[in-house]
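Moderator note: this is an archived Q&A kept for reference. The question asked for a predicted structure of one protein chain; the sequence and the answer are reproduced below.
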Amino acid sequence: MTEAVEYDVVVLGGGPAGENIVDRTRAAGLSTALVENELVGGECSYWACVPSKALLRPVLARADARRVPGLAGAVDGPLDTAAVYAHRDYWTGDWKDQGQIDWLDSIGADIHRGHGRLVGDRTVAVTGSDGEQRTLSARHAVVVATGTRAVVPDVPGIAGARPWTSREATSARQAPGRLVIVGGSVVASEMATAWQGLGSQVTVLVRGSRLLPRMEPFAGEFVADALREAGADVRTGVAVESVVRENPAGPVRVVLEGGEVVEGDELLMATGRAPRTEDIGLDAVGLTPGGWIGVDETCRVPGFDWLYAVGDVNHRALLTHQGKYQARIAGAAIAARAAGTPLDTAPWGAHTATADTRALPQAVFTDPEAAAVGLTLAEAERAGHRVRAVDHDLGRVSGAGLYADGYRGRARMIVDLDREVLLGATFVGPGAAELVHAATIAVAGEVPVARLWHAVPAFPTVSEIWLRLLEAYRDQG
């Protein structure tokens, strides 16, 4: 039997971006339905950001403690891994989403469990696990927020090797004796840090020339050096030719181009993401199934007055916080259009996702941490800006030396010489992730360098790096 229900807004996908669309449209007084086939809260809550940081936090805290005189000797022993996993399980709600459902109930949003597909303009069909069919229609907007899935390349033998993806890497119940990681991305770098710290012997195989290729080159170099010092084997410029696992409970052998074999007990393929759009009915409205969904600055799909896409699925920025930001922008735009009020679509306007391209922050929770916002030097030069990169040794800041003995790190800011504002900044070092929001404000606010002189960093904090960077810029003249 098919049940038909009408709403103002129907949201496909219950991850952070989808939840934020629901929150903003409900706050505007619109009736909203959320369709989710797995757990409400999505990849971030159960298999990505949250569990990975729960695994990483004790590893990083121990590393920091070992750099503090008077404390180092107290943390020489192994981590209590059972407690680490229990803490991880607590933060994932033991992979149950009742807390998220309670929140949806509290704001008056409806949840429809099942697989949702577009079947026509403003119309979504939902098939429940019991086969029940429901049809949801939207007076104002359908929002696609279905996110991404891990990509496992079609390497010979990969299917029989039962590789981990990010899901298995963040939900595993024990550390494998030997973990081989293929990839050089954030997932590869963070999971190498986590599992090396939790007791695995880690080997990282990177096709490219460095880790963290989307950041300034020195970021990946610092992380790779630290992993090697911790005992990991990090190799760059290598390619996987095939994978062999003869016994499901036995070791996996990774054959590299040239014939060398790297053996492990588990294999993590951290080789990219693809949009979850292959079976959501895009063809029913004239779009290509399986592809990224292009959007304008309000996150509306060009050619439609009712279809939006937020989060990873639109490929603007594959980061949870940016997906939530897009959802706030799109939710405000949907509400304004529903009310017939004008939109503010100027750069940095209330209905324009400007930060996606001009002030996008990212933090990588490796040891040392790496954090960046805006453009790298190479990106700024490719975009035609006349810029100067200003670098400083983060370890030469008083606050850093007090934070950790032998502190090692680096900072860079990219200055637009024509406008005297920052286009980007990158920090690498213990605790460096906490520096990125100040940089984000400077970049998003287009704060003049002359005004930044008057933003005095407290002494003795690692934030003194701002003063040193500004002094270096002044001295370069």
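Archived answer notes: The chain has three domains: 2-41+97-149+275-355, 158-271, 368-476.
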